[in-house]
Design a protein that fits this description.
CATH class of one domain: Alpha Beta
Number of helices: 8
Strand order of the largest sheet: 1-2-11-10-7-8
Largest sheet: 6 strands, antiparallel
Shape: elongated
Oligomer: single chain
Number of strands: 11
CATH topology of one domain: Phosphatase 2c, domain 1
Strand content: 15-25%
Structural class: alpha+beta
Low-confidence stretches: 4-17, 194-201, 341-365
Order of helices and strands: HHHEEEEHHEEEEEEHHHE
Length: 365
């Protein structure tokens, strides 16, 4: 039987000991107080001074115990928060400010307190086929839909580079979501080995909007039950109307032929504002809906607003409108065409860093 190194055994022992470390000193104080009460002749005497001294000792011990427990809980909570924040950054990672000549910004508001990720998802990557963008909304809100978010985002980050056609990307997302839902169904009902009518996963679906923005400004779109974006050009925001969307992923099988919509070209200086339905469905205390288009129009009339500043402005207006009481997650994403400025160009990302070409060293001849 392999023997464990003494240093590893010590580290393992200390790791299990560390949660109880804050209680060591208060416990020692308590043992001394009990021993003093039972064995010390002075503690066994009657009198006001003796009672005061005994009360002071036990009060000190109790205070130490409370503070020790509190310090331990605060330390554990800090570690849990750090792990949660790291996991959230990996799942819904910050977007780069520029992608192949496009300025990009995104943000999300979650209804779950302390969470930066909810049931909404977004991603943008530069590929040899153009900049591909996804935004989606999983049925439900808060932390429950995170499994579906991870499945869709993980599939998109691979398929966006591998699939030459936008329809191929959507089919990969649909297959990934289907696998996730089947696995959840098996976990919830292991005896049945499949779907169950009462299973929450059987009713889970995802609205998805896929965009492909090419170098010449051409925009291709596939929409599965998601709100169409707004086009920001000039001094007003215009809704993009590119046809009827498909049903959300997970609700029905995809058709054999996918209707890829060709939207109007995104001209230099123009932007697309993508959002989930939590933005336009947000209400104030009197039940009035949030007027997203008016907020965008006001932002465009004031002055040209960078994408990140526009996201911040809409978030602030949304929180003011709802009084900070959101009932659904909200995700916003802005893509602006800056390709008239060649200095903003960023090379397309490769799916495999090992496939990137390196520039040959200059010759001395």
């Amino acid at each position: 039987m392999p023997r464990t190194h003494p240093r590893l055994r010590t580290h393992h022992w200390l790791r299990h000991l560390s949660p109880a470390a804050p209680l060591a000193l208060p416990a020692l104080w308590g043992a001394v107080a009990v021993l003093w009460k039972l064995t010390c002749p002075i503690a066994q005497q009657e009198g006001t001074a003796t009672r005061i001294a005994t009360s002071a000792v036990f009060f000190t011990v109790g205070t130490g115990l409370v503070l020790g427990v509190r310090c331990g809980l605060v330390r554990e909570l800090k570690q849990v928060r750090e792990v949660a924040q790291a996991a959230q950054r990996v799942l819904l990672r910050p977007l780069p400010p520029r992608l192949d000549g496009l300025s990009v910004a995104a943000g999300q508001l979650s209804v779950s307190r302390g969470a930066a990720v909810g049931g909404d998802l977004y991603e943008a990557v530069a590929t040899p086929h153009g900049v591909r963008v996804v935004i989606g909304d999983v049925r439900g809100h808060g932390l429950a839909p995170l499994g579906a978010v991870a499945a869709v985002l993980g599939s998109f980050r691979e398929a966006a580079h591998d699939e030459p056609e936008l329809g191929g990307v959507l089919r990969r997302l649909d297959r990934a979501l289907g696998r996730h839902l089947r696995e959840r169904a098996r976990e919830e009902h292991p005896a049945s080995g499949g779907w169950d009518p009462d299973s929450p996963s059987a009713e889970e679906f995802v609205t998805v909007l896929l965009l492909e923005i090419r170098r010449d400004g051409a925009v291709l779109a596939l929409n599965c039950g998601h709100p169409w974006p707004y086009r920001l050009g000039g001094r007003c925001a215009e809704p993009v109307a590119a046809g009827d969307p498909l049903p959300p992923l997970g609700a029905f099988p995809l058709p054999e032929e996918l209707p890829v919509h060709r939207c109007a070209r995104l001209l230099p200086g123009e932007a697309l504002f993508l959002h989930t339905d939590g933005a336009e469905d947000a209400r104030d205390a009197s039940g009035r809906f949030f007027r997203l288009q008016e907020v965008l129009d006001q932002a465009l009339r004031d002055a040209p607003v960078p994408p990140a500043a526009l996201i911040h402005r809409v978030h602030s207006a949304l929180l003011r409108h709802t009084g900070g009481r959101l009932t659904d997650d909200v995700a916003l994403l802005v893509v602006r065409n800056d390709r008239h400025d060649d200095r903003s160009r960023v090379p397309a990302q490769s799916a495999d860093p090992g496939l990137r070409r390196t520039r040959p060293a200059p010759s001395n001849r």
